[in-house]
Amino acid sequence: MPKSITRMDYKKNTGWYVRVKFRGKEHRKYFGDSVWGGYEEALEAAVQWRNEKESELGKPRTDRMVISKPHDDLGITGVRRTMSWTGATDTEGNPLPNYTPVYAVTWSPEPGERKQTSFSVEKYGEEKARKMAIELRKQKEFEIYGDTADL
């Protein structure tokens, strides 16, 4: 099933429902089989409308999830400052509640796949760790989308 497109099969209503969400707004359109000349024709029209609407909105055309609003105060999609467990253990091998500040970076190289890494604030310092995280995210966006996404 194409991303953002849902099949609607009801007795009196069959067709494709398209929802394009970007920057907090949702754009919708319905493509009925009877209006568009059949199942395949309606699907083709729905895919074309989705692609055109994404282009119009500036949303990258991808089957990956595109997050357009960062979820933290840093303001960079895919980069956040958090605490990471160090993996420290006591002399008997029991985990210790030992955490360190990091800048975590996430990206999706393929649909349904998630990668992540982090840069230690203690090891690199606040500014360098942040800069390294942002640069890696930009590099991954370029690899995935062909350009850095202006989200």
Give a verbal description of the structure.
The protein is elongated and about 70 Å long. Strand 2 and strand 3 form a beta hairpin. It has four helices and six strands. The protein has two domains: 53 residues, no CATH class; 67 residues, no CATH class. Helix content is 31%, strand content 30%. The protein has a three-stranded antiparallel β-sheet. Strands 4-5-6 form a three-stranded antiparallel β-sheet. The chain is α+β, with helices and mostly antiparallel strands.
Short description:
With 151 residues, this protein is α+β, with helices and mostly antiparallel strands.
Sequence-ordered SSE layout with sheet pairings:
Blueprint: E1 5-10, E2 13-22, E3 25-32, H1 33-36, H2 39-57, E4 79-85, E5 99-107, E6 115-120, H3 121-124, H4 126-145
Antiparallel strand pairs: 1-2, 2-3, 4-5, 5-6
**Helical/strand content category:** alpha+beta
Overall 3D geometry?
Answer: elongated
Mean pLDDT: 85
Series of H and E elements: EEEHHEEEHH
Number of helices: 4
Strand percentage, roughly? 25-35%
Question: Helix content range of the residues, please?
Answer: 25-40%
Largest sheet: 3 strands, antiparallel
Total domain modules: 2
State the strand order across the main sheet: 1-2-3
Note the gap between the termini: 25 Å
